[in-house]
Amino acid sequence: NAGVMQNPRHLVRRRGQEARLRCSPMKGHSHVYWYRQLPEEGLKFMVYLQKENIIDESGMPKERFSAEFPKEGPSILRIQQVVRGDSAAYFCASSPGADRGLPSGANVLTFGAGSRLTVL
Amino acid sequence: DQQVKQNSPSLSVQEGRISILNCDYTNSMFDYFLWYKKYPAEGPTFLISISSIKDKNEDGRFTVFLNKSAKHLSLHIVPSQPGDSAVYFCAASEPGNTPLVFGKGTRLSVIA
Predict the structure, then answer these.
(1) A-to-B residue pairs, Cβ atoms closer than 8 angstroms
(2) 8 A C-beta contact, residue A97 and residue A80
(3) Which residues of A lie inside 8 Å of B (Cβ-Cβ)?
(4) pLDDT, tens only, B5-39
(5) pLDDT tens column, B67-104
C-alpha cells in the first residue's frame, strides 16, 4: 500500500498530556501538509513541510503545537498539554512537489485516513 | 474570513437525477480549484480539478464548471448514484505548492 499512512487512527488523552501524530507520505512525495477538522467544520490548514524544513506554518496555533518532517522517518505533529478544544480529526496529506502533481498543474494532495484525537 | 464557501451544508437528490454542488470563493489569486469527496472515517479523496484558464472540465459522470467573473464553481454529478452519498469539499489553491484552502463541505445524500 503506497498511500499516505497515519497513526494512530484513534488517540485518547487526558487534559495536560501530550499527543503525537505520525504521517508517512505517499512513496515519491516530498511535501507534507497537516490539516485539522473540528466537528461540523471544514478542513483547516495547519502546516506545510518538506524534508527538514517548515515551509508554511501560518495555520498552526502559536503555542503547544509543533511539527517536524525529519530526513528519515515520518512527519510528526506534536501537541503539548492538550485541552478539550484540541479534540478533532487530524489529516495528513502529501504531494509530489516540484511539478505540482497532475499534468494539469493542480496541487493535488493525497490524504491519509486521519487520526482522531479525543481529549478527556 | 472564509476564502472558500460552500453555503449548502446538505443536499438530497433522487437516484438517477442530477446533483449540483456549489462553491464560491473570494481570493482572486486562486488558479486551481478541486473537489474532494469524503466518506465517514476516511480521508478526503480527490475527485476532479479545473484550472482558472478553463470554464469546464468533465470526467465521466462528474463535471466541474468555473465562472471566474462570479468567483463561483459548481460540481455536477449525473446520474447520481447511492454510492455518491458523501461529504464533498471544494478546495482552491494559489500558484505553486501552496496549501489547499477548503470549504466547509456539503453532505450529499442520494436516495434510492
Answers:
(1) 70
(2) no
(3) 4, 6, 31, 33, 35, 41-45, 48, 55-56, 59, 91, 93, 95, 97-98, 100, 102, 104-114
(4) 999 999 999 999 999 999 999 999 999 999 999 99
(5) 999 999 999 999 999 999 999 999 999 987 788 999 99
